[in-house]
Each structure stands twice: as C-alpha cells, then as structure tokens.
Give the backbone structure.
Amino acid sequence: MRNNIRPSQGFTLIELVVVIIILALLAVVAQSKFISLRKDAIVSTMVGMETAMQSAATLTYSKAAIAGVERLATTTLNIDGVNVNLAYGYPDGTAAGIAMLMNIPEGDWNKRPSVYAGAWIYWHGVITEDAGKAACYLRYRQATSTTARPVIDVQTSGC
C-alpha cells in the first residue's frame, strides 16, 4: 500500500514568518530591559560613591580627634602627606577638602563646587549635562557645628 504522507521538504513560508515575528517580539522585550540597565548602573555606582564618601569623612574625623582638632570650625590636617581642609573635624566642602580625599580620576566623575557654600558636587562621567540640570548627582555638604555630621545627598531622578 502506498503512503500518501510525504517526508518534510522544508518550512513553509507561513512557518518562517511566524518564527521571524516571534524573534522580533523577543528582541523588543530584551532591548527595553537592556536600556534600563544604564540607569541602574549609574545609580548603584553613585550609592557606592556615597558610601566611600561617608567612610572618608568618618576616617578623617577619627584622625582629627586623635590630633585634637575635631572641634575647630576650620583647620588643616595632614593626611598621608596631603593637607586637607577640615570643618569641625570632617573634610570641608571644597577642592582642598572632600575633593582632595576622594581623588577620583578625571573622566570617571565630573566635579565642581556646589551653589551652596561649603558643598561639593559629583556626577558620573557618562552624563554630559551639568549635575543640577541632569538631576543626577552626589552632593557633599560640610559639617556646620560640632554636633553635626556632613550631609551627603544623592539625586537620581534624572539619571
């Protein structure tokens, strides 16, 4: 008896179109997931930078307490051969204060004095706008009294 079923000779045009449509939908879903990873990476880097800044401020205060200058409104402390400006034992918000301690290579982070006196701003190097305009930055505000710690703000709404 003869078998009327032919062995498959290949895919039909409809089968190929369906596979292409499914692959296109998967690509659209995957692309949107990869695009959002940039913001997540910048935000997590900024949170790590915030932690490093808090550690630098705390260690500097410890060294200032050992030297007995933690209650002075302004002073300078030599840390590893570098003079760092202090405000109440913590690094002040200037290029000779917190910016000197962080010592970040140019290009990785942009930095500038803040519009607030005694504050310093950092933003990630992949952001071409200024920190305030982009609303994606890390700001260090120096201590203002013997009972206050520095304030470190992280703004990520525009990242």
